[in-house]
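Backbone Fold Data
Goal — fold tokens
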Amino acid sequence: MSIVSGQTYGQHLPDQVEKISALSDAQLELLADVRDLHKERAALEREYATKLQLLAKKAADRKAKKMPALVVGNEPTKAWDESTLAKSTLNKAYTQLIGAISDSSQDHNSLADALTAQVIEPLRMVERQHDEAKKKEMLYYQKLLAERDRVYADRIRSKQKYDEECEEVEAYRQKQERSADDRHAERAARQFEQQQVDMFNSKNAYLISIAVANKIKSKFYADDLPALENEFQDLQSRLLTGFVRILKDAQDIQLKHLDAVRSHLTDTQAALDAVSPQADQDLFIDYNVAPFAPPADWTFEPSAVHYDHGDMSLEPAPKVYLQNRLSRCRAKLQELEPVLSSKRKEAEQLNKLVAAYSTDSSLGNVDEVLDNYLDAQHELIFYTTSGTVLSTESETISSALNGDVGAQSPHTFKSSSFSIPTTCAYCKSSIWGLSKQGKTCKACGISVHSKCELKLPADCTGTRHGGRGHGTSDSVSSMSSISRSSSVMTRGDAAESSAQATPTPSSFARTSHAAEDSGPTARVLFDFSSTSPFELAVSAESIVHVLEEDDGSGWVKVADDSGAKGLVPASYIEFLSANPAPNIDASSSSSGADRSRGEYVRGIYPYKAQGPDEIDVEEGKLIRLTEGPTGGRNYADGWWEGVDADGKRGIFPSNYVEAA
């Protein structure tokens, strides 16, 4: 929405927000000077009115003493009264003269009051409103810069990460060459291949960040900055229009009071009528046009230590990463589209309201509607920026994949903690720790490191059965044994597979449902201000709950104590040490299994304890389940807590027993 009809700042003054803002400051200073001028004028009028009133009173007192002598003499022989004096024409003339002075005094007071109410206060209000609007626009400009610089910084960080990975690849290559003839050659070769995959992923992330940075840069200079400058131009036009209107009112007041000097005021009125915001703006533009060319697009820069090209790496492992990232981008775009549509409709409706209020002032205060419109427009721009990032990532990856989107059965991972070592289904290394070091698929139960989430093919089977629920991809099908994190056998499966070997235990996470919902706690290291609706502002030393860990993007989703959720940079937080698992007090359990109290289960498969916190399960033997919100059946998914016949307390797989 704009009232500007001629040249615009956004079209003719690219990237000159600071200079345009300085023009607004100069206009505000002019308003302050004019307001002070009328304030001093009103003070002079009141001072003059007071003196006129004193003069009239003094004249009236003198008249009262001298007029009788002037009318009837000092020693009249006939009685007289005030009516006698009123008949005197000289008295009438003098009374009219004094009354005129007294009335003039009141007129000057009225002029001062009118200047205060209709000129000084409106000027102060316009000045304050425009100053607040200018500050809001500059704050929005700073946020635009911060958002742009953040994307630029992501590109630089991606470049640094890519260079580091290239150096690591070179180091592993040299190590592989040195160990070509010894017994470590195979391990060195594996390390070199894995590092190559990491380098390719870093390269892809770097290329994506380049595309995003170029797109954001183009949007910043082609859309966001021109729109902001046009908003400034609109505010300045409204400021000058309101300024001229108030000064016209001041001239009308003075024309009514000082009819004798109408010629001078008419000249001023004509000069004010000649004020044209557009003409001044055109002059400003003519004297401020400067050569401008948008910054050149960024391109791929190969590492100094590793020769490479600027094409996406489509090796099998990097392709899986790209396919997963593409699926995530498309899912987020689907969530964003209805929000964008709603915000666009809201901005369009408010734009129509501003136009209606501008045309008909009787509808209400146009400034309030304009503030609402600008707020909605700014929110829409931030949402479109997020959409641009997601669509650019999606288009870049889709172009590289050329239609090969991979498997379309994505895993539904959730953050998990592991109190016993669990094998990652992707890299085959152990996952261990109570601070949610990995993630587990809710559907098939497969467990991976957080860093390996996007590297795993999206071929979730949706079942959690051992031997059938974890055939996710060629990259994980070569497992020599079923991982503890993904082998869960139900009683029905066990009955069907009685001839098979005893199944291995399921993985578990020693965490309550409340802990899964709130996530691990972390301490904020630095202050962070949100620059988009998806981010969360946090302050240093505050405690937050991590809802989604870093997926490779450098951001984590957290919730603060007030329940607000959003993204913060992963480097801005530090995970707090997990609370140690409660000590198991074996003495608290009864030494014998009393069937008269508690719930009992009977072993249907033998199970050998594999840790100090576990107990054996013997076929046909009874185990008494413990009680409490975290005991018995409530201990964890797939694991129960109980006391065996010897009084030992511990955990065991729930699918190895049946109700007694």
